């Protein structure tokens, strides 16, 4: 049984393929077309997935899309009649819905073949819940999805048991915790789609002096039907509507906040404008109020389910600062979040909802290894290097077939302060570099963060870098040792270790860690272990292999990034490339 899952005509378009219950491949379209957060039909991702399964598209049995324009149709109609949104907004939504409904015929035209697959439109948040529960290690769990909006819903919770999801609650448009965070992300001058993580990184530089104002914008309720409510006077998405571009190219969203929000908080920051302490304090207050609402929802979900297990999903599940506080802020004791918790992950969720819930198959797959993207062999890398001989004249190039020696040499260079590109095996699924498409540095160097931000990443100076740590050593360095192989939780670094790894310790003493195990990524574990032998520190600074672009996918993208930046070393498969002194 072959199921193709899609996130299409939405931000972070993606595809995944499930064969007899096993996830063979998953990838976001941005990795192929090099347009960040690309929205549209993920054609190249589909081709990759089919190639990994060694089939043509006419052999696919089911195609599942993580959108259902017919879901909650009565709620949509009632809202349209009562609020009368602008006609242009209605036209935009209808146009997008028609594209979702036309996917099969579009694929038939693109692949020039008769597609026999049965189509399934899975409600957006149900696909989110499925994307995390059906691939989790839990037989039973409380389920929560929180994001902006999808199919007229801003949040959903339910109960997962074996191969069934039972939805218990929907928070309907226009109320949304994700939109609350988005409004202030835009207000603070971060206007690109998906910039919320920048505000999360800025928040520790501020103080919570705008909490009274934040409490006016979003109200926390003890009602079972509405755990929170936006004061809609501070927003325009429900009245004037928000223009969105989801059909192709870079996804775009117009401002969602009203003039009343400006009157409450002061002038909005313009893109590129200097960040003042006021901006930092607003970011801090936003994060704090978000956490209060988030933990309130989680507490209500726990009270209803009494499950100690939580499967979390939706774009808000990428808020790693809040995720790291779940254990101290709620009764949950086990948490699973798959690495593409946002909209891209809906491709997996839609596929597994069909496999488990619709077709009734038992669960047999746990998503532990995020390395399900493209991979390249040394023969392909050698061809690339041969074609780049002129550009590589000033570099020393060695081929090292012994993995132990390869890791030892790379660790030695990193320990000397050399910034190292690390390109290995299959590409990661999700927005985090997890040791196969990474830029690595020495976490002991106080100046390493500034070196990377200025010379390599060319990004805002306040943004932190992540520590990758061998899982056995987690309790030595972090106040909480609960493993996180997908880099989705922030924990406090032990005070005694903060001076040892300053480059990966944020201003508030925290770090968004990735725990690395020998079973999940043996080569990366070995590299960190070699670094420990040299330095007695089992931690590497890890950031995504890119420069203001999607994470590199192919060897030529890695090599080009290496050549145009000031990286010192590139380990490309078994090829060790180093700048001459």
Would you mind describing this structure in some detail?
This protein is α/β, with parallel strands linked by helices and 581 residues long. It has three domains: 2-128, 2-Layer Sandwich (Nucleotidyltransferase, domain 5), CATH 3.30.420; 146-337, ATPase, nucleotide binding domain (Nucleotidyltransferase, domain 5, 2-Layer Sandwich), CATH 3.30.420; 378-579, DHBP synthase, CATH 3.90.870.20. The protein is 35% helix and 20% strand. It is built from 20 helices and 23 strands. Strand 22 (569-572) and strand 23 form a beta hairpin. Helix 6 (124-133) packs across helix 14 (346-358), helix 7 packs antiparallel against helix 11 and helix 16 crosses helix 19. The protein is globular and about 70 Å long. The termini are far apart.
State the share of residues found in helices, binned by percent. 25-40%
Q: Which descriptor suits the 3D outline? A: globular
The fourth-level CATH homologous superfamily of the largest domain is: Carbamoyltransferase, C-terminal domain
Q: State the end-to-end distance.
A: 55 Å
Number of strands: 23
Count of discrete structural domains: 3
